[in-house]
Amino acid sequence: MKNAAVEYRHHFPLDPVDVVRVFDHSGIKRPTSNLPRIARMFAAPCLVLSAWVDGELVGLARSLTDHAYCCYLSDLAVDKQYQGLGIGKELVRRTQAVIGDEVSLILLSAPDAMSYNPTLGFEPAGNAFVIRRKH
Q1: Confidence at residue 126, expressed as pLDDT on a 0 to 100 scale
Q2: Per-residue pLDDT for 98 more than 90?
Q3: What pLDDT, on a 0 to 100 scale, did the predictor assign at position 129?
Q4: Share of the chain above pLDDT 70, in %
Q5: What is the mean pLDDT of residues 62-83?
Q6: Does 1 fall in a domain?
Q7: Residue 63 burial by CB count (10 A; 0-12/13-18/19+): exposed, middle or buried?
Q8: Is the model's pLDDT at 45 over the cut of 70?
Q9: Sheet holding 70-78, edge to edge
Q10: Residue 35 to residue 17: CA distance in whole angstroms
Q11: Dihedral sign for Cα atoms in the order 130, 114, 42, 69
């Protein structure tokens, strides 16, 4: 599996069941027990990129952006079987290629990814504020 060719797709419709599998196999926490909520999360985003191996979804990046000033990378997940192959880095690179140099790419890191995200070029920001979701 690790040496299979990865195919990247831009705005390819994703089956929520596949999305749940990637989230569950990636190690990041999302509300995967709530399939309708996952479906809503991917129904109308501004920018979705995905990575596929032999027709199977193995990675995804979902961003909300105005394509002019800022882009919030809200989900970056790669199935653990495929981590370490540069898929996450390539999804971020492709996201940057779509939004261009005038747009800041912003990521609110999952706790387990705090050491990984700087390897993608992200810098810590001390000027961020969050109102946490209740669910």
Answers
A1: 86
A2: yes
A3: 84
A4: 97
A5: 92
A6: no
A7: buried
A8: no
A9: 6-10, 47-53, 56-65, 70-78, 104-107
A10: 7
A11: positive
Cα 5 → chain centroid: 19
In a domain, 29, yes or no: yes
pTM: 0.80
For the chain, what is the HEC assignment?
CCCCCEEEEECCCCCHHHHHHHHHHHCCCCCCCCHHHHHHHCCCCCEEEEEEECCEEEEEEEEEECCCCEEEEEEEEECHHHCCCCHHHHHHHHHHHHHCCCCEEEECCCHHHCCCHHHHCCCCCCCCCCCCCCC
**Which pLDDT score is estimated for 76?**
95
CATH of the domain at 37: 3.40.630.30
**Number of domains forming the structure of the chain:** 1
